[in-house]
Structures are given as C-alpha cells and as structure tokens.
Amino acid sequence: MADPKLLTLSGSLRKGSYNRMLLALAAEAFGPATVTEGDLDLPLYNGDLEEAEGVPEKVQHLVQQIKDADAIVVGAPEYNKGITGVLKNALDWISRVPGWPLEDKPTVVVSASAGRTGGETAQFMTLSCLTQHQARLIPGTAVLIAGAMNAFDEDGRLKDETSQKLLTKRMEKLRAEVV
What is the per-residue pLDDT across 57-87, written as a single tens digit (0 to 9) for each? Predict the structure, then answer.
C-alpha cells in the first residue's frame, strides 16, 4: 500500500494554535503518510443559504478531503468549557452532504487547551458529535494537553515525555487501522 492519507482537522483557526501544533506532532507520530489539513474556515451554517445556493464549495472540498482520507485526526480545543464554534459549524455543514462522509472513517480526537483539564469537556463533546456522524472512533487513553501555553517548547515539541508517548501510542493505533 502507498502511504496512507491522513487528514487533520483543527477546531482552531489560529495559525499558531496549540491544537495545530499537536496535530503536527500527531501526523509525525502516525508515520509516513500524505498529510492534508482540512480548512474549517467555513461560512456559518444557515439553512436559508443552503436552500438558496446549495452546499458551499469550501464545504464540498472539505467533504471530498474526508472521503479521500484513510484516517482522520481532529484537534479539539476547548473554549469556555465546550466545543469550538469552528469545529461544530464544520460538523454541521458536513452533515448536510448526502452519504455520511465520516461514516466508518478511522478517527482519533486529541486536545490541547490552556486550562487545567486539557480540553476534556470539548473532547467529549467532539466525540459525541462524531458518533452521530458514524465515524469509527479509535479507542484509547485520551490525549489531553493541559496548560498548553507551557506544554510545547520553542520548536513546537511536547515538553512532557509521557504526553508524547501517549500521543504516539494513539497514532500507532490509528495507523494500524489503515495499513
């Protein structure tokens, strides 16, 4: 098999977000792969917009990336003890495309957050949303990076060896699902 296709989805739009940093490390730990980052900078879901213009081209592109991917890793930051609007909006749009693009797609969710729980609430909410999409959620110990502003070194690497080992183990399990 050629290198698998790994799609990363960050629930934060900020270029320097901790979840993007964590997703980069996850992709590295996954091993050789064609890695693509999905663009979740989508218009807000609006049924009137959908009715008048159909599903936006950016959403259709994202859905095609999901269909083309062999595996997905989602970075789920926590804003105000919940899932980000960016991530929830993307999942809402994806649900409007016929064919359930996330169905049976091997998926892992990871979180980095400034708070002391590492995004635990947002991760559980994201997992719940992905269950409705019928994604194949790969079980394992949750990757929750607390105090994210201090968790990464100047090169974007995790300072805590235990967190890196946990991330690597999750990505190895995800890779085993597709190779």
Answer: 999 999 999 999 999 999 999 999 999 999 9
What pLDDT score was predicted for residue 2?
Answer: 84
Q: What is the 3-class SS of the chain, one letter each residue?
A: CCCCEEEEEECCCCCCCHHHHHHHHHHHHHCCCEEEECCCCCCCCCHHHHHHHCCCHHHHHHHHHHHHCCEEEEECCEECCEECHHHHHHHHHHCCCCCCCCCCCEEEEEEECCCCCCCHHHHHHHHHHHHHCCCEECCCCCEEECCHHHHECCCCCECCHHHHHHHHHHHHHHHHCCC
Query: Please, how many CA atoms are within 13 Å of residue 103, restricted to the half-sphere of its CB?
Result: 6
pLDDT one-digit tens code per residue, 13-40: 999 999 999 999 999 999 999 999 999 9
Structure tokens at 15: 């270029």
